[in-house]
Design brief:
Elements (H helix, E strand, L loop, with lengths): L5 H16 L2 H8 L6 E7 L5 E8 L2 E2 L1 H10 L13 H14 L5 E5 L4 H10 L14 E5 L5 H11 L3 E5 L4 E5 L4 E2 L1
Parallel strand pairs: 1-4, 6-8
Antiparallel strand pairs: 1-2, 2-3, 4-5, 5-7, 6-7
Helix pairs in contact: 4-6
């Protein structure tokens, strides 16, 4: 019969407690903290600009690569740029891995200034007043040749933030806010 030492029992108890307190996405995020390189590609459907960047390597986010991604995901209405949340990029990297496609994400909307967001909100019922797009924590995407309904399912299953599905416009909203769906 195996005998456990007090220290072993305490370690197992602490691990069980921590595991029960963290939701699955948090556990996934912890395992995603590896030093493996992370590359993403985007095509902006409004400007026809594209970028493919290794935004994370050698255990660190790459400022120059992030700047190029920020530029392509800017508010095309007024050319305003903000820092896109690196956690959002990590979520998209995980989506890319699960989808198993090499095509760039087609971006319908990345960053939006509060003014642009308000203009869109007045003309469309699907735009939130305090949208996470206005702080660089949301993106509306599609993957060419991949069903957006299935893309939505992949994103929801990850439990990494908000996921909205817009079948008539053929895109999925992904953000790093609270876990919710619509």
């Amino acid at each position: 019969m195996n005998r456990y030492h007090r220290r072993d029992i305490l370690k197992m108890g602490a691990a069980a407690l921590l595991g029960s307190m963290l939701p699955f996405p948090a556990l996934a995020a912890i395992s995603n903290s590896s030093t493996s390189p992370r590359t993403l590609a985007f095509f902006n459907t409004h400007t026809a600009e594209s970028v493919e960047e290794c935004y994370f390597k050698q255990g660190a986010y790459q400022p120059d690569a992030l700047a190029r991604i920020n530029y392509v995901l800017r508010d095309h209405r007024c050319d305003a740029i903000t820092s896109i949340d690196p956690k959002l990029l990590d979520v998209l990297h995980a989506v890319k891995s699960r989808v198993g496609r090499d095509e760039p994400f087609h971006v319908i909307s990345g960053y939006r200034t509060p003014k642009s967001n308000e203009l869109l909100r007045r003309s469309s019922k699907g735009v939130a007043r305090n949208s996470l797009h206005t702080v660089g924590k949301a993106v509306d995407i599609r993957v060419p040749g991949y069903c957006t309904k299935q893309l939505r399912h992949v994103c929801i299953k990850m439990q990494s933030g908000g996921v909205g599905y817009y079948p008539k416009s053929d895109f999925v909203h992904v953000d790093t806010g609270d876990i919710r769906t619509w």
